TrEMBL record:
Domain Bacterial type II secretion system protein E stretches: 310-324
InterPro entries linked: P-loop_NTPase, T2SS/T4SS_dom, T4SS_GSP_E_ATPase
Organism from which the protein derives: Couchioplanes caeruleus subsp. caeruleus
Database matches in SUPFAM superfamilies: P-loop containing nucleoside triphosphate hydrolases (SSF52540)
GO molecular function, one term: ATP hydrolysis activity
Lineage: Bacteria, Bacillati, Actinomycetota, Actinomycetes, Micromonosporales
PANTHER family linked: TWITCHING MOTILITY PROTEIN PILT (PTHR30486), TYPE II_IV SECRETION SYSTEM ATPASE (PTHR30486:SF15)
Family: Belongs to the GSP E family.
Ranges for region Disordered: 1-46
Protein's UniProt name: Pilus assembly protein CpaF
Transmembrane segments: none
Amino acid sequence: MGLSDHLSQRNRSSSAGGDRRPANPARSEPGPSRAGAGRPAPDPLGDVRQRIQRRLAELLGPKLYDDMGAADELELQVRRTVAELLAAEETPLTSADRARITGEVTDEILGHGPIEPLLRDPSVNEVMVNGPHNIYVERGGRLEPAGVEFADEAHLRRVIDRIVSRVGRRVDEASPMVDARLPDGSRVNAVVPPIALDGSSLTIRKFSRDPFTVDDLIAFGTLTRQTADLLRACVRGHLNIVVSGGTGSGKTTTLNVLSGFVPAEERIVTVEDAAELQLHQEHVVRLESRPPNVEGRGAVTTRDLVRNALRMRPDRIVVGEVRDGAALDMLQAMNTGHDGSLTTLHANTPRDALARMETMVLMAGMDLPVRAIREQVASAVHLIIQVSRLQDGSRRITHITEVVGMESGVITLQDLFLFDLRAGTDAAGRFRGKLQPTGLRPRVLEHLAAHGVTVPLDVFQAGPR
């Protein structure tokens, strides 16, 4: 009989004897709580787990914070020590209780506490912590309660501090917002009080240990085989491509797949705020921006890195996301012999992407007329790929749009492929549509031919809808 069974039996006995006093007077009158849906019931194994954890810290001490290069050995030692402590524990425990305590203590000491199982779960795409007791996950494009919680605000802050310190960053009252990453490349954003009013917020967007390939995106319905072959030709033919989309629409995943089309013999320089791209080519130089230190010095911006990348003899420059004056440097790179560059930005449509790009160029502080900016954009960008998260939770490429040029002071676009929303949904509510050619012949075919890449014209032939 485990600890949980013993406690249940004791509570039944007390109730039968007429003793209506609560088992834990300190918890008999809980105050108002902001706990979210799915908050778990009090854990009867909690006291045992905390006791084991304290003893573990006393026994191993500094070893828990040594260089994580020997992480496997440290985990083995932690598990061995926990097993010894459990063997000496007087509280009766079942084998299931012991396995659970061992896993939870290991996650707390070496991982990320109660959210560690969520980070290991391949069905979870994103983990959202809204204070210590309110945790949600995204599965299949849908949000749902996670059913786990932190012990308190201090517990959550320890996990946040552990994450950001690994990448040399900090978060406190003076600097209450931070972007970081996990060792596997997952993107992390943390916000702490006083900015976060209801407790610290932690958002983790997971990256697959095995990055999605173009075949995966075809299987998901994100794009078709026909459009995948076209995009491969566009990347190999050194077109400058912008991936546009909203938050969580799959921009970085699409950019990662496009980057995989770059030939292995070319030199690639990547620039990111938080390193997420997972390229398999050998000749890759990865650069990551850096926030200022405690004294407000030492910041290295994306714009600094883009300018520096131009001096590194790149064949391709891949910028994870442009969101400020770095857009001007990116356009100049595209216009000065660095064809084949790739980047992403936040926008809802290809036309909005151009407007966003104009705005970001103005953020560079250069007093440029709008017409000059538009001419720069029109000559630099060849293709815009619009990615959207649809109502059914799926992520689809909805537009493949060519930037044609300038006409009467306005950048002209033509859609080469559009997602067919008119196909409706199936019984499960998922969209049946796919990318369909519009029948327009792109003007970039000559550019592709100049780089030895040919695309069959029947790819762009519109068929029956």
